[in-house]
Each structure stands twice: as structure tokens, then as C-alpha cells.
Design a protein that fits this description.
Length: about 120
């Protein structure tokens, strides 16, 4: 049930067509869950700043039932930062990434929850 949300001021025209599919593969490999359970969204063209400037920046959230937490998030941060630099041109020092290890009861799917 990993869920990756990327909000960025990068224009839609700068987001590659394969962004979500590529991010799905990355998150599945990072977290160790099947791609079928990974949800990815990107919100380009956001009115946002980072450090007081409107140069390319992003707010990123990765939620999962397991697979994130101390001892894992540094590696996840590096992989996500590298990916976002490569795909949409946002530097690692122009984004915050929030990691959340969710209880199964907090995540709904298919009319129920995972816990």
C-alpha cells in the first residue's frame, strides 16, 4: 500500500510521460511491496516556494504500511531525491520528503482497511 505524492512547481510540460510508472517501480523496489499496491501521483504547476524562491522545488510524501522508518529513510531519501532530480530536475536541497509508517487500520482500500 505504498503511496507517493509529489507536489512541485515544475511545469506539467517538464514531467515525463513515464513519471508515474517509473516511480511505481522505484517505490515497489524500495519498500519491498508489489507494484500492484503502489499508488503514485504528481501535482505539477503548484504555486510554491522553497527557501523564499520559486526555483524548481517539491514537497514529497511517502506513506506505507511498513517499509519505512529509522534505518530505512536515509536510503529512501537518497533514491527519491536522485529520481526526482533525474525525472523533473528538482535538486535534493530544494525538497522536503516526509515518511510515514501507517497502521493498516489507517489506510482504506476496496471498501475496507488493511488492518
Amino acid at each position: 500500500m505504498p503511496m507517493l505524492i509529489v507536489i512541485s512547481n515544475v511545469p506539467r510540460s517538464s514531467v515525463p510521460a513515464d513519471f508515474c510508472k517509473s516511480a511505481t517501480k522505484l517505490v515497489a523496489s524500495m519498500i519491498g511491496k508489489p507494484e500492484a499496491y503502489v499508488n503514485v501521483s504528481i501535482v505539477p504547476d503548484a504555486m510554491m516556494t522553497f527557501g523564499g524562491t520559486d526555483e524548481p522545488c517539491a514537497s514529497v510524501v511517502l506513506k506505507s504500511i511498513g517499509g519505512v522508518g529509522p534505518g530505512k529513510n536515509n536510503g529512501h531519501s537518497k533514491k527519491l531525491s536522485d529520481f526526482l532530480k533525474q525525472k523533473i530536475g528538482v535538486d535534493a536541497d530544494r525538497m522536503f520528503i516526509s515518511f510515514s509508517d501507517e497502521p493498516g487500520s489507517a489506510m482504506g482500500w476496496n471498501g475496507s482497511t488493511f488492518g
